[in-house]
Amino acid sequence: MSTEMHPTRWGDPARASALPQTARDLVALVFPVADRMVADDAAVSLPPSVLTAEMLAELASVVGPDHVLTDERSRRLRAGGKSTPDLLRARSGDVSQPPGAVVRPQSHDEVQAVLEIASSHRVAVVPFGGGTSVVGGLAVRHEGYAGGISLDLGRMTRLLAVDPVSMTATLEPGLRGPDAEALLAEHGLTLGHYPQSFEYATVGGFAATRSSGQSSAGYGRFDAMVTGLVVATPAGPVELGRAPASAAGPDLRQLFLGSEGAFGVITAVTVRVRPAPETGVYEGWRWATFDAGADAMRRLAQAQLLPTVLRLSDESETALNLADPDAIGGGVAGESGEAGESGGGSLMVVGFEGTVESVATRRAAVTAVLADLGGEPVGEEPGRRWLAGRFDAPYLRDSLLDVGVLVETIETAAYWSGLRRTYDAVSAALLEALDGPALVLCHVSHVYETGASLYFTVAAADGPDPLGTWADARSAALDAIVDSGATITHHHGVGADHLPWLEDEVGAVGVEVLRAVKAALDPQGVLNPGVLIA
Amino acid sequence: MSTEMHPTRWGDPARASALPQTARDLVALVFPVADRMVADDAAVSLPPSVLTAEMLAELASVVGPDHVLTDERSRRLRAGGKSTPDLLRARSGDVSQPPGAVVRPQSHDEVQAVLEIASSHRVAVVPFGGGTSVVGGLAVRHEGYAGGISLDLGRMTRLLAVDPVSMTATLEPGLRGPDAEALLAEHGLTLGHYPQSFEYATVGGFAATRSSGQSSAGYGRFDAMVTGLVVATPAGPVELGRAPASAAGPDLRQLFLGSEGAFGVITAVTVRVRPAPETGVYEGWRWATFDAGADAMRRLAQAQLLPTVLRLSDESETALNLADPDAIGGGVAGESGEAGESGGGSLMVVGFEGTVESVATRRAAVTAVLADLGGEPVGEEPGRRWLAGRFDAPYLRDSLLDVGVLVETIETAAYWSGLRRTYDAVSAALLEALDGPALVLCHVSHVYETGASLYFTVAAADGPDPLGTWADARSAALDAIVDSGATITHHHGVGADHLPWLEDEVGAVGVEVLRAVKAALDPQGVLNPGVLIA
Q1: Shortest CA distance to B111 belongs to which of B271, B254, B230, B252?
Q2: What torsion, rounded to 10 degrees, do the Cα atoms A244, A249, A250, A252 define?
Q3: Which residue from A381, A441, B4, B337 has the fewest beta carbons nearer than 10 Å?
Q4: How far, in Å, CA of A471 to CA of A496, rounded?
């Protein structure tokens, strides 16, 4: 697998695939399809770096001259994330917020030294892990600064410690999902964290954005796995997590989890690990309606009988998956409708991982509950299909963008009693804002005793101003989320894109608290300007 | 049950009991026993209030004149908490830090208004729930202030909302444990939070101190139950918790949980609730050693097979319990020794609550693991004894103080791999510091996948300077805790007593963050001076 993402597409170009003709025909039933051009790489020019030779030399004295990159390709690759607006801008040749240089430290101390240099010159610093942000967390906003750098953590990839008694491991922030799992596997351990961005996203990013993986029902959200953190800040280093739980005042770990590079740079993460599973079973259940399936999820969560993976597609997403079994990643392209020809309703994927014995026991208990609630078991094929394609949806997005279909996602979480209200409000807001042929699909992929996430996928004609179209739709959706009482983001983070809604989430005083923490840790305001804090 | 605590003793005077002669004889085997006098209530005089009539009138205009109490008894009852040093001072007639007035608001808005008045006059405000702090969290330190008030939340006792679908309930902060449970029981629900202080401690205090209850294995720590908070601060109100989980930046709920009244006054807490259990079974298991028992706890936690209650007494605590089956509360008084006549070793109490079916299933699974690891089941008698006496230890402490035995507790938590190191270090530090006939007992009562708590009970001769003796012992124990890598408190909180060690816990930068948050929320510094922030 390529270790770098393509500048205008997701992931590894070798794995990208053009839309098969059948899928293209299907898409053409709904949308006006037309091939879109992507700006020629050679024609893209970046604004020049404003960093002085003196600054670059100072940075090089810390990380070594080989690790201060100023070539156009390195800068372009770290000029943004992978939201659809990011891709649209990159496709049009707009790379307006690149770093002046890419700086690649190898240790906590080097990160700390870089932050001190950046603070002294008032140079903006954008921490960069896998480059997978979908909320505008990576643009290098350095207006009013003496330039900006991308602090690429890709050289900090060690497994620093394993404690097999306490079942914890300490990981460096630049470790990508697969590499972290490979290192842990040597000790018979797993983290069990599989967000859709798993193949590129990093441990530091998981922590900084409160990531949640597709196996969160069994392994928990990433923030729930973290027991300890080391963070470099302009005010000095911070080390937290002397015990699994503590009453020694506020839990400051929870202030750096979700801090998105605005408070400091996470340089080590200690996580709770689990034994690598002996086996895994993933199977499908069909529910008459999305509501019936969601209610079953709630009952499992409240009975504390959660499987390892638990997700539920609404009727539309289910219909699309069934209509096009070959669709990459599932749930993005296809034909709208209440029920596909294979039975309709709402498809649930239920997965169990662990020892053979624990999988059998838990599967039996969950099966009894689901059958009792009226679910229809549909075998392992839907589970296998989900497992095989679970990291592929972003490739499909590229293929759809290629033919003029705007695809993007938005996600939230709500308490169970408000879940349907939020679902309805967001669906309606998106359809109204898009005002034309559009599909809104939804699934629940993270459940708790008290509520669950909602993950919407939107497809619409790109039209003459796709950036404006999506900005309006996102804005309408976030307003609907806020009005319906839900959170502005369950696992994508705030970034710059959700920032206008943060005060709705935490209130004016909450925003003041974040500002005060920022001022204490980063007095020059060099860390990720425009992210999390306005 | 009395709703107010006695000024010099724990709890309800009607339930206090003198040490039975047999127990007294047993104690006399180890300690020089002599009846101690308690200062006559009538002889205790308080420093006069320095609050002006104008301030009192302003406060009365908010809460009503009946709810601004300035009588000596009301002030004395809110002059401190229930640590052994608090009791020793109260017994000696030293009530040097009482509030000038006790103010009893009835609503969030009244609390908010009181904070504004206090800020405008720079009057210290100490939030008061059940008065059960054992870390010096309640003394009204108002040197340099225009006086100090105790903000008694005892009138804020409503169940504000129940959401039986999401399984959450919103409680006012003044609700004591039993009252909260009684209100929830009307809906067939339970919180399942039973700290030793349960009968007096309040919901607001549970949240503000990150309390952990005796059923934490099954129901979780209090901070893990909280989904939402409303907080009144001098900077304005804060409302948090729009979803069970969120990636909308740092989790600010975790900044107010554990804030111990220094950042704001919690005026409503939304908690995850569970169905009231149909049944409960509590039984004993004997282990050859404390280490063997602790290892069994670790295996249960890491297999995610935790019962509802899981606690383990070390060999000394076990010996005492077995030597004196009638001891109130267990584990505080009696004869030292490695093994009692009833078998010795280390006693574990394992409890299951829930539906009949879930108790049976979980009990069978746990029993299989414990038997496989070499545990010896010793029936339900130890479980029944623990259940009957679980809130009584503080009464026994009073009885021992009466005969000249200094009794106090100290607690911590560590990762599993460091648990024995911390146990040894703290035991040795306490015995060395106490330098005379002394008992140090320990139990584990809160377990996690990655570690566990350690709760030490100390008994020693009070001697001529019991306050100095305990201050030295506590200091030595906390130094040992820090040196061994554990947390300075697992569930008692920081208060004023642990404050000198907070920088060891969170570092200099962590302390700066806390200061910055305090300055943003409480610019005049009126909230609980000397607690959490120096």
Answers
A1: B230
A2: -60
A3: A381
A4: 13
Q: For residue A205, give how far its alpha carbon lies from the nearest alpha carbon of chain B (Å).
A: 12
Is the per-residue pLDDT at B324 higher than 60? no
A210 contact residues in B (CB cutoff 8 A): 245-247, 251
* Cβ <8 Å between B449 and A510: no
Residue B85 has phi, psi (to 5 degrees) of -60, -40
Cα angle A26, A27, A28; round to 5? 90
Identify whether the C-beta of residue B56 lies closer than 8 Å to the C-beta of residue B101. yes
Selected residues 142-201 of chain B with any CB under 8 Å from a CB in chain A: 163, 165-168
Q: B346 - beta bridge partners? A: B287
User: Residues of B with CB below 8 A from A191's CB?
Assistant: none
Q: Tokens representing A534?
A: 């306005």
Its pTM stands at: 0.95
Dist. CA B200–CA B337, nearest whole Å: 34
Taking only residues 415 to 454 of chain B, the set having a beta carbon closer than 8 angstroms to any beta carbon of chain A reads 415-418, 446, 448-453
Q: In the Cβ-directed half-sphere of B338, how many Cα atoms lie within 13 Å?
A: 2
Q: Where are the beta strands (DSSP E) in A121-224?
A: 124-128, 148-152, 159-163, 168-171, 189-190
Residue of chain B nearest A299, judged by CA positions? B165
| Contacts B253 to A, Cβ<8 Å | 254
Q: Which of B165, B219, B246 to mutate to test the interface with A (most CBs of A within 10 A)?
A: B246
- The SS3 call for residue A314 is coil
Mean pLDDT of chain B: 93
Integer CA distances (angstroms), A438 to A29, A406, B287, in order: 12, 9, 65
- A275: distance to nearest CA of chain B, Å? 9
A231 to chain B: closest CA residue: B509
Question: What amino acid is encoded at A328 in this protein?
Answer: I
How many other CB atoms are there within 10 angstroms of residue A2's CB atom? 12
Alpha carbon B309 to its chain's center? 17
3-state secondary structure B397-449: HHHHHHCCEEEEEEEEEEEHHHHHHHHHHHHHHHHHHHCCCEEEEEEECCECC
Q: Model ipTM?
A: 0.95
Q: CA B522 to CA B355: how far, in whole Å? A: 46
Nearest CA in chain A to B497: A248
Residues of B in contact with A257 (CB under 8 A): 250-251
Instruction: Closest CB to B449: pick one of A167, A255, A415.
Output: A167
**In angstroms, rounded to a whole number, what is the distance separating the alpha carbons of residues B229 and B242?**
10
Q: Which of A209, A448, A517 sits opposite B247 (nearest CB)?
A: A209
Which burial class, exposed, middle or buried, applies to A96 when counting CB atoms under 10 A from its CB (0-12, 13-18, 19+)? exposed
Task: Characterise A481 by phi-psi region: left (phi > 0), alpha (psi -120 to 50), beta (else).
Answer: alpha
| A449, pLDDT greater than 90 | yes
pLDDT exceeds 70 at position A334: no
Lowest mean pLDDT among A20-29, A341-350, B318-327, B487-496: B318-327
Identify the pLDDT of residue A158.
98
Question: Residue with structure tokens 């270090």?
Answer: B425
Cβ–Cβ contact A489 with B under 8 A: yes
* The two structure tokens encoding residue A292: 């019936």
Residue-wise pLDDT for A303-329, tens only, equals: 999 999 999 999 999 998 765 544 433
A224: nearest Cα among A250, A248, A257, A265: A257
- The distance of A43 to chain B (nearest Cα, Å) reads 37
What Rg, from alpha-carbon coordinates, does chain A have? 23
Token pair of A242, please?
A: 């002397």
pLDDT digits (tens, 9 = 90+) for B71-82: 999 999 999 999
